[in-house]
Structure formats: C-alpha cells, structure tokens
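User: Just a sanity check before I run the rest of the batch. Below are the structure tokens for the first item. I only need the designed sequence back.
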C-alpha cells in the first residue's frame, strides 16, 4: 500500500510539473519576448536555408498578445522566400543583424516578382543593421534593357501602417530594391540601398498608392531611380537622402496605365545627388489612357554634384519609342516649386520644363537656382507650355523662352 501511495503521489507530482511547464510555455508565448531563429526550437544555422525556421518564429511572435521580436543574429543565412503576414496581435519587430541571401535564380521562388514581403501589418518595425542580399548579378546579365521587369523585388511592403524600417541594407536586388504599395504612415530611416550604376530597373525605393510615407537619412546608390514615386502617392516626405549612382529622384513615370490615381503632396528637401543621370524630375507618358493630376510637388535645398539633367519636367516621356510622341499628355501638373537648388551640371541643359500640349503646367515656381556647367559652352534652359514664376535665378536658367536649345544626354529610359 505504501509503495502504491508513493507511486501515486509521484505520478501526481509529474503531472502537475508537466502541466506547469506547458502553461509556462503558453504564458511565455502570450507574454511576447524574443524569438531567435537559431534557438533549439527553430534550429536555424548559418550558411543554410532558414526559410522554415523564419516562418515558424514569425508565426509564434505574431500570435503573442504583447510586444515581440523575431531575431536573425549575425551570420549569413539563405532564405528561399519569406512572407511576414499580419495582422499580428501586438506590436512586432523583425531584427535582422546578419545577412539574408536570396537564391541566384528567381525561378526557385513561388512568387516570381517578390523575394521578401511584409503584408497587412500595424505597429511593425524592421531593424537590426543587417543586409538583404538579392544576388542579382546573374539576373541583370540576362535582362533585355527594353523589358527590364524580369527578376524579383528584394523587399515589398503592402498595406503596412504606422510602422518603421530602420538601419537595414538592400544589396544587389534583381529588380526594385524596396516596393511600397498601399501603405500609411510608414517611415524609412537610415536605410542603405546598394547596386552598381548599370544594374537595370533596380529602383531604390518605389512608392505608389500610399499616404504619409517618410524617407529620411537614407543613402541610395543603384542603377535606376533612387526614389521613384508612382500614382496614388500622397503626403510623401523625403529628407536628407543621398543619391548616386542612379537616375535621381523621380515623380513618375505617370499616365502609362488605366485607372491611375492622382499624385499630390510630395516634399523633397535637403537631399544631395552625385553623378546621377537626372536630378529631380517629374515625368509623364506622352499618351495616356485617361486624365489625372499631379500637384503640390516641392523640391527644396537640393545639392547637385556633376548631375547630367538637374531639373526636369518631361510630359513627352516615351522610352524606347513605346508610344506616340505626337500625342499630348492628359496629366495636369500644377503647384510645383524648385527652390534653392545649387551645384554643378555635367550637361549644358540645366533646366528642362516641357509640359503637355494644350494642357500647360500651372503655378510653377523657380527660386534660388544656382547651377554651374562643368563642361565647355553656355549653360541653357528650356521651357515649353509653361510660364514659371522666377526669382533669384541666373539668366541662362531663367527658362524664359520656348526656343529649341542644345540638349544634354537623353534621360534614362527605364521606367
């Protein structure tokens, strides 16, 4: 009897102990905390594929009812593809300290257009000082420059709100580095984008159909637009961005597709562009399927260092002769300012503002433009279908005539 009683008591103690441990694990999950992909539960190891480990850690963290953090420590980790999807139950952070490495071949991905994506998230933070390496070199060599949409986007944000991306690097993306669609109040702070100047269609940050996005203290050197701004973008602020190599900071191109939404409230300030093929520009396709508007666009305190086309408004944009240049753009541009733009241009055409036939640009202001041509010959400007308000602008840049002028190298054609 005594032995049976002892055994019964031991069994009861073991049951209570296991129940307590299970409850503790559930409580830990509910309480949030750190979810390191290299711990025993997830089993991620450097120089191996951690796709499954990353997905499992995210699933647990996203289910937590208090703030949680998924951690990828220092080291190089291979990721086939990853989808970080919400909504999550509490604020969540992905802290990438090491390097995540994409497959060299996009055909290995189930989604041919995206490698890493963040979807339907609120109060999310991406941080850690780590690198998203798209390994795009092989893809670039195979791309036809007239159809440079091949290859995957490194990082996509879709329907992400009230969130922060800071201290991360996007390296050698096969396509756009960072794509922002349908987001609200999303901030990029101290982000680095790096790819060779001849890498096709590798826009640094592309933003469309989003409201209240901020890009600040960011360094972008790539093969296409450092920042490109698509339709439906509203209340975008870009400050203290360095750009080069690249094609500059561009609103557009706009008007290529049907049902494009208006662009309004774009503020670009305190930025520096170095040896880029364009500076700050607005571009709309020469022929559009429907009318739209582009308004409240302001460029201020911009430094140009040996930039080819410093100030551009081009409503006859038609890369690779894909449209009818004789057609007139239906995108109405208004309330645009270029203030305190100074530095050097490597081509004689310092200012080019070519607006749509029959739809002149309105309320265009140029103030404090001071550009020096580094080559031989005279500095010039061109204005067509626009009568800008001008103050403190040197005569060669005063844009007072529609007469043809000597043009610099053509703007880069990639969309």
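Assistant: Here's the designed sequence for the first item:
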């Amino acid at each position: 009897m005594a032995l049976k009683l002892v055994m019964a008591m031991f069994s009861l103690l073991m049951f209570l102990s296991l129940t307590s441990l299970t409850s503790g694990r559930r409580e830990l999950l509910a309480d949030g905390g750190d979810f390191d992909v290299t711990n025993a539960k997830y089993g991620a190891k450097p120089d191996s594929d951690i796709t499954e480990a990353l997905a499992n850690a995210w699933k647990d963290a996203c289910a937590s009812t208090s703030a949680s953090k998924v951690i990828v420590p220092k080291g190089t980790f291979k990721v086939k593809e990853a989808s970080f999807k919400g909504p999550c139950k509490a604020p969540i952070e992905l802290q990438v300290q090491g390097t995540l490495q994409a497959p060299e071949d996009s055909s290995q991905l189930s989604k041919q257009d995206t490698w890493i994506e963040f979807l339907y998230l609120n109060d999310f933070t991406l941080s850690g000082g780590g690198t998203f390496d798209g390994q795009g070199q092989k893809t670039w060599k195979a791309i036809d420059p007239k159809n440079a949409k091949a290859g995957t986007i490194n990082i996509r944000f879709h329907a992400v709100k009230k969130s922060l991306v800071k201290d991360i690097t996007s390296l050698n993306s096969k396509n756009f580095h960072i794509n922002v669609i349908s987001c609200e109040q999303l901030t990029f702070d101290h982000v680095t984008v790096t790819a060779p100047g001849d890498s096709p269609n590798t826009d640094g940050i592309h933003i469309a159909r989003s409201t209240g996005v901020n890009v600040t203290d960011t360094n972008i050197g790539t093969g296409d637009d450092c920042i490109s701004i698509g339709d439906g973008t509203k209340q975008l602020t870009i400050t203290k961005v360095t750009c080069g190599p690249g094609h500059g900071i561009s609103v557009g191109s706009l008007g290529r597709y049907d049902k494009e939404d208006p662009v309004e409230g774009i503020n670009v300030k305190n930025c520096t562009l170095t040896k880029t093929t364009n500076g700050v520009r607005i571009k709309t396709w020469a022929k559009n399927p429907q009318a739209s508007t582009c308004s409240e666009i302001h460029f201020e305190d911009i430094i140009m260092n040996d930039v080819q086309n410093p100030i551009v408004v081009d409503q006859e944009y038609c890369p690779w002769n894909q449209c009818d240049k004789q057609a007139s753009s239906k995108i109405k541009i208004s309330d645009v300012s270029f203030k305190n733009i100074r530095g050097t241009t490597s081509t004689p055409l310092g200012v080019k503002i070519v607006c749509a036939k029959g739809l002149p640009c309105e309320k265009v202001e140029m103030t404090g433009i001071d550009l020096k041509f580094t080559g031989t010959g005279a500095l010039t400007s061109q204005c067509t279908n626009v009568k800008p308000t001008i103050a403190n602008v040197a005569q060669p840049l005063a844009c007072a005539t529609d007469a043809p002028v000597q043009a610099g190298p053509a703007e880069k054609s990639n969309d």
